[in-house]
Amino acid sequence: MHRRIDDFMDSITWFSQHPLVDPEKIAVWGLCFDGNIMLATAASDRRIAAVVAVAPMMDTTGDPERREALLELALADRAGRIAGEEPMYLPLVDEDGVTALGQPLGNFFSTMEGLNMPVENRVTANTYMRCVNWNMLHLLPKISPTPVIMVTPEHDQVFPASRQKEAFDMLLEPKEHCILLGRNHFDWMFGDMDVAFNKQLDFLKKHMQL
Amino acid sequence: MHRRIDDFMDSITWFSQHPLVDPEKIAVWGLCFDGNIMLATAASDRRIAAVVAVAPMMDTTGDPERREALLELALADRAGRIAGEEPMYLPLVDEDGVTALGQPLGNFFSTMEGLNMPVENRVTANTYMRCVNWNMLHLLPKISPTPVIMVTPEHDQVFPASRQKEAFDMLLEPKEHCILLGRNHFDWMFGDMDVAFNKQLDFLKKHMQL
To answer: Is B65 exposed, middle or buried (0-12, 13-18, 19+ CB in 10 A)?
Structure first.
């Protein structure tokens, strides 16, 4: 997670030196867990002019009853790699579409296949240890004065709208919460997307003087 | 911070395979910021049989008024290194013995010199970004059932006893809080140390069946 944030900061360094980019007008956009990561990045990187967090998964700790088993597998994964073994993989989702953390990912795989972006169904056990320990909620009040728009599908089945709202409430101004009525974590990406994207564009235009 | 925790977990893997070590009886001991790191490590590594956290510095976010300046320097440090420059260093403490975070380190340098362990007075700007974002308080309730003893110098001038107590209260059982009366962050390491160490030994004997 932390390396991911480092990488995004370094990519902003790269973009801000690119001749086609106005370094004063770099916004970041993240979906699901990357909504979380973009918020965490913006708390440190003041070059970011605005954040769009769509259906952000603010909590990856998962089912507390699975924590101990995941930690044990993760430690075995680390020890195995030190001994020269291959990484230990767990499925991203089981046959019911549920992650090892106990989070339902719904139609994630069929969606990605539909987008011609097939994903391998595996994650290292060590990665799951990162998930169960990850928490960036303390950074939310520190993002201000960078403007944030959170876009929440009303029927988000992966990370509930009510919990996205809790995270939104921890942000300071300027901020905006846009609810996608009748949509879930995936289906807002198909059909009429104008409502979803026009709200985001209006927000960026307003706050970035576009 | 996270790499430090990873390294400690891997060192426990190494120790637990060593012929002189009983892998069921590995305790970890940490002073000041390493008290914090040992607590964070124990929340994931269930091979740890007990934790001793002495004068733990539970919060490294420092003075909020210094946050923005430190982030700016840290981002410049990262960008510079990508461009092939040397790391940017800030002093660990200024002439008043205060870190760039605004935390007083008191007689840290004279203490380390007295112990014949001289320390260079420099920290990279990027490291300070790790400090201002670090928070592991959410892991404290997850350390149980691993037993923890926290040892707090009554007059700790680096991280106040009252705030150590707040962290102690977030731990679940089994736990013990040992106050070193009349002592500060450094001076408990000199003169009569029997009280401090006998309490720790008694705790380890009790919980590790020594």
So the answer is: exposed
Checking phi first, is residue B112 left (phi over 0); if not, alpha (psi -120 to 50) or beta?
Answer: alpha
Return the pLDDT at B2.
87
CB atoms B44 and A72 under 8 Å: no
Find the CB nearest B44 among A43, A45, A71: A71
**Structure confidence at residue B88 as a pLDDT band (50, 70, 90):** very high
Residue type, A85: E
pLDDT computed for residue A108 by the predictor: 78
Name the average pLDDT for chain A.
94
Per-residue confidence (pLDDT) for residue A115, from 0 to 100? 83
**Whole-angstrom distance, CA of residue B27 vs CA of residue B2:** 20
Q: What is the H or E stretch that residue A69 is in?
A: helix A67-82
Instruction: Give yes or no for a cis peptide into B174 (omega within 30° of 0).
Output: yes
Q: Is residue A138 within 8 Å of B64, Cβ to Cβ?
A: no
Domain boundaries, chain A: 26-59+135-208, 64-130
Residue identified by tokens 């990045």 is A41
Which B residues 8-27 touch A at CB under 8 Å? 9-10, 13-14
CATH H-level, domain A26-59+135-208: superfamily: Alpha/Beta hydrolase fold, catalytic domain (3.40.50.1820)
Preferred mutation among B138, B140, B144 to probe A, highest tally of A CBs within 10 A = B138
Question: Buried b / exposed e across B36-47, counting CB within 10 Å, b at 16+?
Answer: bbbbbbbbbbeb
Give the DSSP H or E segment for B178. strand B175-180
* pLDDT tens column, B134-150: 999 999 999 999 999 99
Nearest Cα neighbor of A14 from B78, B128, B72, B125 is B78
| Cβ pairs bridging A and B (under 8 Å) | 54
Q: Quick one: tokens of B23?
A: 């892998």
Note the pLDDT tens digit of each residue in B6-59.
999 999 999 999 999 999 999 999 999 999 999 999 999 999 999 999 999 999
pLDDT band, residue A147 (cuts 50/70/90): very high
Contact (CB<8Å) B10/A45: no
> Could you give the dihedral angle defined by the CA atoms of residues B36, B40, B46 and B50, in that order, rounded to the nearest 10 degrees?
10
pLDDT confidence bin for A123, thresholds 50/70/90: very high
